[in-house]
Specification:
Number of helices: 8
CATH class: Alpha Beta
Largest sheet: 5 strands, antiparallel
Helix content: 25-40%
Shape: globular
CATH topology: Chorismate synthase, AroC fold
Structural class: alpha+beta
Radius of gyration: 21 Å
Strand content: 15-25%
Number of domains: 1
Order of helices and strands: EEEHEEEEHHEEHHEHEHEEEEEEEH
Length: 363
């Protein structure tokens, strides 16, 4: 189903940008996991709008409410339903867009597919749909952390023309990432990114960027070849996010310019286990995790909704000029960081459960 993700740890998101609420239902959450709203809220706070001068001013607190699946602070093994109310709604900002599809947005394609679409805010194509993903990802991440000691950290490595050197993936922390409003851990690059985002906002324009992510502590053996390869599941998860246009893992596209003798990751002993001296594979070989940190990057395009007048056409094909109103991010990557972490957690929780089931079946 188009709004569901996962096999054993399965998540369905619901809600539109300017509807009454957004949220998710988690089917397959393990029982007896200590869970409260306080476990979920921190990631929603990192994703929410209005948190800095470089994000949309839409004022949403995004408070999560657990509707089902938890009793006396423990999950029951039954579906966990999470709801987050939309409170700062302004559907009137989108009146002009009722007859003019926004360039590079999903207004036209949703209308073409369904014959109807949400009249404001992009509906399901809005980034507010990702709230349900972040809430579910927080639950998945807690289970992964407690069961396997797994850590997931994402950060902004590029915004517009500004790029940051890759940090030590073994040491990067969320505290370091969150120290600057751009969520870039390199101070010089963070300042350049902030300036670029402010300049785009002043020009009523937008810029794209890159989010990098590391998943530490993933055991060897996760992933289901050949069509369920772990990097393929990660790519599907990340490219399902709004505004994404590219995914690469390990050496990525740069590896295509190397020779095999330079690209190969030699095996070495690491404290009683077999590991690799380098990690150009990005922690996955043959579609299966190899025990090294999983490192990948996602490219986000510039947000499609901008304040500049744009010559375009209405739904009937007549020439039109659209000057979008409303509250929009000039660059999505700082707020995309917890969303990327959430999708990584959902992929890894599902992969872990599949592997546990395989091991149990083998006796």
């Amino acid at each position: 189903m188009s709004s569901s993700f996962g096999t054993l740890f399965r998540v369905t998101t619901f809600g539109e940008s300017h509807g009454r609420a957004v949220g998710c239902v988690i089917d397959g959450c393990p029982p007896r996991l200590a869970l409260s709203e306080a476990d979920i809220q921190p990631q929603l706070d990192r994703r929410r709008p209005g948190q800095s001068g470089i994000s949309t001013p839409r004022d949403e607190k995004d408070r999560v409410v657990i509707l089902s699946g938890v009793e006396s602070g423990l999950t029951l093994g039954t579906p966990v339903a999470l709801s987050i109310a939309n409170r700062d709604q302004r559907p009137g900002d989108y009146g002009e867009m009722a007859s003019i599809p926004r360039p590079s947005h999903a207004d036209f394609t949703y209308q073409a597919k369904y014959g109807v679409r949400a009249s404001s805010g992009g509906g399901r194509s809005s980034a507010r749909e990702t709230i349900g993903r972040v809430a579910a990802g927080a639950v998945a991440e807690k289970w992964l952390r407690e069961r396997f000691g797994l850590e997931i950290v994402a950060w902004v490595s590029g915004a517009g023309e500004a790029a940051a050197p890759e940090p030590d993936a073994d040491r990067i922390t969320r505290a370091v990432v969150d120290a600057h409003i751009t969520r870039c851990p390199d101070p010089a690059a963070a300042s350049a990114m902030e300036a670029a985002i402010h300049a785009a906002r002043e020009a009523k324009d937008s810029i794209g960027g890159v989010v990098s992510c590391v998943c530490r502590g993933v055991p060897a053996g996760w992933g289901e070849p050949v069509f369920g390869k772990l990097e393929a599941r990660l790519a599907q998860a990340m490219l399902s996010l709004p505004a994404t246009k590219g995914f690469e893992i390990g050496s990525g596209f740069a590896g295509s310019r190397m020779r095999g003798s330079a690209h190969n990751d030699p095996f070495v002993g690491k404290g009683g286990r077999l590991g690799t001296a380098t990690n150009r594979s990005g922690g996955i070989q043959g579609g299966i995790s190899n025990g090294e940190p999983i490192v990948f990057r996602i490219a986000f395009k510039p947000p499609a909704t901008i304040g500049q007048p744009q010559r375009t056409a209405d739904f009937d094909g007549n020439p039109a000029v659209l000057e979008a109103k409303g509250r929009h991010d000039p660059c999505v990557v700082p707020r995309a960081v917890p969303i990327v972490e959430a999708m990584a957690a959902l992929v890894l929780a599902d992969a872990a459960m599949v592997q546990l089931a395989r091991a149990a079946a083998a006796g």
